[in-house]
Amino acid sequence: MRDVSIIGAGVTKFGELWSKSLRELGLMAGLEAIQDAGSLVQQEHVSALIADYCAMAGAHVPSTRIEGASASGGLALRQAYMAVAGGFIDVAVVGGAEKMTDVSDSESAHTLSMGADEEWESQQGATFASLHAMMAQAHMTEFGTTREMLSAVASKNHGHAALNPQAQFPFPIKPEAVSDSGLVSDPLRMLDCAPQSDGGAAVVLCASDRAKEFSKKPISIIGSGQASDTLSLHHRASLCRMPAIGVAAERAFAHAGRKPADVSVAEIHDNFTISELIALEEIGLVDRGSAGQLTLDGATALGGAIPVNTGGGLKARGHPPGATGVAQAVEIVQQLRGTAGERQVKGATLGLLENHGGTGATAVVHLLEVN
Amino acid sequence: MAVPRFWREMPVRYNLIGSHCTSCDMYHYPPRAMCSGCHRESLGKMEKHQFAGTGQIVANTVVYQPQQGYEMHGPYPMAMIEMDEGARITAQIVDVAPEMVKRGMRVKAVFRKLGEDSESGIIYYGTKFTPADEPEEEDEESADTVEAEL
After folding, report:
1. CATH 2.40.50.840: does it fit domain B52-150?
2. What is the CA radius of gyration of chain B?
3. DSSP letters of A171-188?
4. Smallest Cα–Cα separation from A283: which of A310, A314, A318, A258?
């Protein structure tokens, strides 16, 4: 197996990008990533399309679409990693793009709920938020997690997004604003939920022995782990856990020969505030049940012991599902290169990215390190 | 949605038919061909099981932003129900004020309309739950059990 490096990273602005089509978003992110290294509703043959418009069709570059609900980006990164590590390909572009605002709000919300069990959760009347609401309640009952702790997650991520010009919501919000926002599904409120966003992100992977040909600051992928769980939340033994995340992290750490205490900066899949708390506990970055209090104490904010979601997270950077897992890699690459500007974590050497789909049915964790 | 998608599931959805593993005694809903508890041990030992439809709420929420097709219900209670045989199901709780729905509450299955394709399209039916008429003391006892399990 060969060592693999990220030699290029690019991301578009996230938000309601009405003037940009999926074709353009994929192209913008892809081209930016390639340069850095050196409306399509119902369009299903996406990989060939983006490759074509990135002018790769003439060379017959192989292209594959990877799908795993909101974990698609992380899964695509892992597929490309395995292809390069396995020696099948020398250089691979991982692109993620999503165009949510070309359909109505209710249609895109319904599409998002397909990440859960469509037949036995969504059709029964359960929204994606309602499943996470039951997870939040279980976490509150089990560990004494409070409303203030959930609000602190969203407020912290907005604070980070204020330092990220590519973010959909580049402004701070007070924790009280989260606690006072409208109920979506008790106890989750509007500002506990990631928004619907358009956006694209891309990274370029290369066999490490050739990385210096393209990039002065290649970033190594030293760990990759993936795990699955039951699709329906009601088939899990505990509602306040997402075990697949823990297993994916364990595999990534074992692969890299590192441990959670070595991580200097992390990107966590905060599609809802409760998800960030549970994921931190599953990965072992904090003790089980302590994530809420630590967030309240500022441990996961910039300047804290373990800065989480320095780019603003899904909550405030925005959540174009296909792009999210790749955007996490872009943020960590910037952190490790030391080019994250005002949101730079000083001396960051090891970065973790956690991306999951549904209520944790698919989880992908990667570890990146300065080369 | 095409008609066969619902038609082929009618027995399962209309009669709460799941599966029972005679190897490890685990119950599943919807039915599984292989037991999620004992895996290959279950091959050839799975049987159909019609659930009694009684159970208790193990988690619940009130949905204020409804699922597509459920707009006229909002705000409505959703819950995770553990049926007495052990299998869990996610369903709407009906015929009760949302604030009355509590963890540990005894419920029973009712046959209800889930949705429709359009005014002239196919109507989907399935299972929702409603509070069960059972003695009060049993309610409290089961609430304690749920507390311990979570």
Report:
1. yes
2. 17
3. S---HHHHHHSPEEETTE
4. A258
Domain ranges of chain B: 17-50, 52-150
Probe site for chain B from A113, A130, A141, A228 (most B CB atoms < 10 A)? A130
pLDDT at A39: 46
The CA distance from A1 to the nearest CA of chain B, in Å, is 33
| Residue B45: how many other CB atoms lie within 10 Å | 13
ipTM of the complex: 0.89
- The CA-atom distances, in angstroms, between B143 and each of B53, B104, B134 are 18, 4, 14
CATH class of the region A4-103+194-370: alpha beta
Whether residues B68 and A106 touch (CB distance < 8 A) is answered with yes
* Structure letter (DSSP) for residue A190: G
Residues A231-275: tens digit of each pLDDT: 999 999 999 999 999 999 999 999 999 999 999 999 999 999 999
Nearest to B127 by CA among B47, B26, B59, B55: B55
Chain B (97-126) residues lying within 8 Å, Cβ to Cβ, of chain A: 114-115, 124, 126
**Token representation of residue A68:** 């795993």
What 3-state class would DSSP assign to A351? strand
Model confidence pLDDT, tens digit, residues A276-302: 999 999 999 999 999 999 999 999 999
DSSP 8-state assignment for residue A12: P
- Rounded to 10°, the helix A128-143/A105-113 angle is 60
Please indicate whether, in this complex, the C-beta atoms of B80 and A142 are within 8 angstroms of each other: no
**Distance from CA of residue A284 to its chain's centroid?**
18
Closest partner residue to B67 among A125, A133, A238, by Cβ?
A125
> What does the domain layout of chain A look like in residue ranges?
4-103+194-370
Question: pLDDT exceeding 90 applies to what percent of chain B?
Answer: 65
